[in-house]
Specification:
Radius of gyration: 17 Å
Structural class: alpha/beta
Bound molecules: manganese (II) ion
Number of strands: 12
Largest sheet: 10 strands, mixed
Distance between the termini: 15 Å
Low-confidence stretches: none
Shape: globular
Length: about 240
């Protein structure tokens, strides 16, 4: 049976019509990689979250709003975008439950930062203010299916095994990033300015990617290997 992948889904804060929101490309990528996507709306009910986790084989934490400065215990910096603390809390609980049951997790963009914070790492609220000298990490939104900046990949990583290359080009649409990684995690890719662009857990069950492979894979097929990795890990876990 195909692995069932839970994807968190949130209210669209930009409209007042109470629509839930998830970019179709996440669903397309999970399906193309061989999984069944299930969209889960934000809840703070821990029992419901446990049920979700028991129903699903793996977790996809998608991109989204900025992490709340309340979660970070910091003051908001200039340029902060939409925040959604209910979503942040939901995704932390999802992460904890999936992790507790050793079920695979893929975090994209904001999801990558949720992974860092969930494992005891830290993030920059704004790389352009806090990191100093960076290259451009914000492509025009309508060009996110195009490759943009390069990243160097650690040869001792699952990510390297997927691309079989120590340097690839990726797209980029973020102003936050991981500043320090958490326990049992390692950095697997960086851009030339030192911004962390990918992480994975030492046990290989968690992968965090700062770029958006789901927006690239239709033109750049190799990028689907990141989603295939999640699905293959789920298949492997189910067999044991
Ligand atoms: Mn970037």
């Amino acid at each position: 049976m195909k692995p069932i992948i839970l994807i968190s889904s949130v209210l669209n804060l930009k409209d007042s019509k109470n629509n839930y929101l998830l970019n179709k490309n996440y669903v397309d990528a999970i399906r193309s990689a061989g999984g069944i996507p299930i969209l889960a709306p934000v809840t703070n009910d821990l029992n419901d979250i446990k049920l979700y986790v028991s129903m699903c084989d793996g977790l996809l934490l998608p991109g989204g709003e900025d992490v709340s400065p309340i979660i970070l215990e910091e003051e908001p910096l200039r340029g902060i975008g939409y925040i959604n603390i209910e979503r942040d809390k939901f995704e932390f609980e999802l992460f904890n439950e999936f992790r507790k049951h050793k079920k695979p997790i893929l975090g994209i963009c904001k999801g990558c930062q949720i992974i860092a914070l969930s494992t005891g790492g830290k993030i920059y609220q704004d790389i352009f203010i806090q990191h100093g000298n960076t290259i451009e990490h914000s492509q025009p939104e309508e060009q996110l299916d195009e490759l943009f900046h390069s990243v160097s990949i650690d040869e001792n990583s699952k990510l390297y095994e997927l691309f079989n290359s120590s340097k690839i080009r990726v797209n980029s649409w973020h102003h936050q990033a991981i500043s320090s990684i958490g326990k049992n995690m390692k950095v697997t890719a960086k851009s030339i300015d030192g911004i962390i662009e990918a992480v994975e857990s030492l046990d290989g069950l968690i992968m965090g990617i700062q770029w958006h492979p789901e927006l690239l894979f239709k033109k750049h097929r190799k990028q689907l290997s990141i989603y295939k990795y999640l699905i293959n890990q789920c298949i492997k876990i189910k067999k044991t």
